[in-house]
Amino acid sequence: MPSKSPVIVDLKFIPEEVEAALKGAFPDREVINRADTIHYNRNLSGIDYAVVWKSAPDLFERAPDLKVVFSGGAGVDHVLTLPGLPDVPLVRFVDRSLTTRMSEWVVMQCLMHLRQHRAYEALAAKREWRDLSQPEAADFTVGIMGMGVLGQDAARKLSVLGFNVVGWSRSKKAVDGIETYAGDELDTFLARTDFLVGLLPLTPDTKGIFNAGLFAKLSRNGPFAAPIFINGGRGGSQVEADILSALDSGLLGAASLDVFEQEPLLPESRFWQMPNVYVTPHVAASSDVKALFSHVEQQIARLEGGLPLQHVVDKLAGY
Amino acid sequence: MPSKSPVIVDLKFIPEEVEAALKGAFPDREVINRADTIHYNRNLSGIDYAVVWKSAPDLFERAPDLKVVFSGGAGVDHVLTLPGLPDVPLVRFVDRSLTTRMSEWVVMQCLMHLRQHRAYEALAAKREWRDLSQPEAADFTVGIMGMGVLGQDAARKLSVLGFNVVGWSRSKKAVDGIETYAGDELDTFLARTDFLVGLLPLTPDTKGIFNAGLFAKLSRNGPFAAPIFINGGRGGSQVEADILSALDSGLLGAASLDVFEQEPLLPESRFWQMPNVYVTPHVAASSDVKALFSHVEQQIARLEGGLPLQHVVDKLAGY
């Protein structure tokens, strides 16, 4: 029996977390962690597997024999745009923990806007005890664009919290207890939406979709009048110049952004310190690295056991 | 038929919200809104009903013939401590909206601590793009003290978000899917609790219950090591000097306080600007005033129709 193929690991995560998660992972094969300088000039030809997140641009050139590429996250746009992506299955990371974390972030952002957290923080900074007129979750409709695994989980949890929730996706999704729209029903969906949550993959169709034209179609009938934009998907889906002018003009009342057109967000960006914007550094659903390796182990075991891979990306659709 | 008794309204809420909610309320009887100066010297004898929240201390002296007192909130300690409380039914406000709002606040506080919101705000203030090691909800146990209507609703919602949840109450409560403790099982409950949520009524038994001795019994095994205290119940249940020293010494890692021993919180309080403390001005579950009046109308209709009142307080137990 030939010895088992090594696994290339090229993950731009917190290095210590990758190191820790690798302890005990892939017990029956070698791991080539590209963060480790001893592997810097290692010949990667003949290797079957790579687990990548914002990997080095020359990875596919250096590792020409990959049989499967595993994305370190739910999104795969960072892989699809790499030069020389081989024509082999690309597997996304789908995991209970990743889904749960995204919903934590989405629910927290919706609640912070609903409960006027920044306004109360500003009062506290002035040591001022004063209550603000407070609508409740049921007075708002959250509209989620992107009703895949992440969108459906967030929808269900927002709904339990008392929000009205509607969903939109490219193709129609039936979701228990949630009204859903698809394709060209977008305008109807937007007209109902007070808090817009973006959980879309980045594809040619979604590039720049969150722009001034779309914001202008959102509901202005909610208790806060101006709609709120919350993006936990991909920065490439948003036009940041439009978000800034929408916030300036009042077309948008507030925003929560975890993703940006260019990451890291530049220090000079106005987003960092706008009073009505929450910025997080692409951490809404950071992958649990142990869970990632366990998912990769399972998929490799399936493949080597003659079973089909799961969560394989449709490269034409881009997700 | 004698004309129907007026209703005295003495609610220290936002005055405009009370005014607005009174439009159309109690259509068949007079409303004496004590915030209205024309009623200042009004003779209140012979009147059957009063709806009160932090009412004037001389109310019961001035209105000696009340048949029912309605609390403007879920808590009734503000009524029980008023001089001259007549020996008539005291009815608490129980309402879907009030419950939902409290859960919004509790879930938001738990998520902000879990997701290290203040740490990310501090990074944003420095325009620094950096991710922090991030445990998930399932890595923490939230312990709720007070498993009445509010506690049970919060427990269910925290559980949906992925937190482990345990509950403690004076008398044993069976709650679907939640492990509950009662009475003298408090220490076992505390030893499991990473985030302690207080939703207790203020009674002689709960006065000062959140003190250094109790904090010392909380779990220090969670991912953040130091436990977190979140109080949405009553300020009288907490010993603020102990909370301050616990935060200083690290016995507590952080806190969220909506209620205080003395309200309004004094401007000189250190709580306002501590980096690991969220302060809100007793607004966690502000009553929806329209819903309050509709609840009072329903209870008066029951009483005058010969049916028993609902949500009557056990004055001996204090809730």
Supply database-style keywords:
homodimer, 319 residues, alpha/beta, Rossmann fold, seven-stranded parallel β-sheet, 10 helices, 12 strands, 29% helix
How is this fold's topology laid out?
2 copies of one chain form a homodimer.
Chain A: E1 7-11, H1 15-22, E2 31-33, E3 49-53, H2 59-62, E4 68-71, H3 77-80, E5 90-91, H4 96-114, H5 117-125, E6 141-145, H6 149-161, E7 164-169, E8 179-182, H7 186-192, E9 195-198, H8 212-215, E10 228-231, H9 240-249, E11 254-257, E12 277-279, H10 289-304
Parallel strand pairs in A: 1-2, 1-3, 3-4, 4-5, 6-7, 6-9, 7-8, 9-10, 10-11, 11-12
Q: How would you describe this protein?
A:
The structure is a homodimer of 319-residue chains. Chain A is α/β, with parallel strands linked by helices and 319 residues long. Chain A is built from 10 helices and 12 strands. Chain A has 2 domains: 7-95 and 287-304, 3-Layer(aba) Sandwich (Rossmann fold), CATH 3.40.50.720; 97-279, NAD(P)-binding Rossmann-like Domain (Rossmann fold, 3-Layer(aba) Sandwich), CATH 3.40.50. In chain A, helix 6 links the parallel strand 6 (141-145) and strand 7. The longest helix of chain A has 19 residues, at 96-114. The first copy, chain A, is elongated. The first copy, chain A, starts with 6 loop residues before the first strand and ends in a 15-residue tail after the last helix. The mean pLDDT of chain A is 95. At the A-B interface, helix 4, helix 5 and helix 6 of A face helix 4, helix 5 and helix 6 of B.
